[in-house]
Design a protein that fits this description.
alpha/beta; five-stranded mixed sheet; binds zinc ion
């Protein structure tokens, strides 16, 4: 008797290449289902937030080289970041108002931080220290929970856990000052938002202003 229909569910899901050299991990149950990314960056990789701490994931990342830094978008998505730091020797970066979310962050910043051609922008609202990472080489903005995906488009959600919605909308407008084609959000499935700047503009035009 043949049992060809038996399927073994593999865990975890393989990282998915969203843009050349930019990979999304499966939502991390330890950070409210937040999505983390690793960027190869020509042998000088970096990460935004962290996925579940699993050996297969660690080996996948190490295949690109040890990440120079791990940018934590905000306090909700810290999860096992310190374990990743220990394993990779990476620098942990978080906004200064949320520095206590990790034990001794390596780098903190106020409004803006530049590392090579990577830019980190303070975009408060979802939380006081929420920040976004701009990677011009791939024309992509990593937004964490600041801007998430809803039906393929960008949204700044004004419900659960948002600290200051008006501030969040101001921060979203601030991002329009950068030249990007894509958004890779912290939530909304493994979903690449294309035509992102135009869509964000449209969202802001219709956003409820209190
Ligand atoms: Zn959050």
């Amino acid at each position: 008797m043949r049992c060809t229909d038996v399927q073994v569910k593999k865990k975890p899901l393989s990282p998915k290449e969203m843009l050349p050299g930019v990979f999304a991990f499966a939502p991390n149950p330890d950070s409210f289902g937040g999505i983390s990314y690793v960027v190869k960056n020509d042998g000088n990789p970096f990460m935004t937030d962290v996925p579940e701490y699993l050996e297969s994931t660690l080996l996948f990342i190490e295949g690109f080289g040890m990440p120079e830094f791990i940018f934590l978008t905000h306090r909700d998505d810290v999860a096992d970041a310190e374990k990743f730091r220990e394993r990779f020797g990476s620098k942990l970066i978080i906004h200064q108002t949320e520095r206590r979310a990790v034990n001794q962050p390596d780098v903190t910043f106020e409004d803006f931080l530049e590392i090579g051609d990577v830019m980190i922008i303070h975009t408060p609202g979802h939380s006081p220290g929420s920040s976004s990472l701009y990677y011009p080489r791939s024309s992509v903005m990593f937004t964490g929970d600041h801007i998430t995906a809803d039906g393929g488009g960008p949204v700044a959600e004004d419900f659960y856990w948002t600290y200051n919605y008006q501030s969040q909308l101001r921060s979203a407008r601030k991002l329009l000052g950068y030249d990007f084609k894509y958004i890779l959000p912290g939530h909304g499935g493994k979903r690449l938002i294309a035509n992102a700047k135009e869509s964000l503009k449209e969202f802001l035009e219709s956003a409820w202003v209190r």
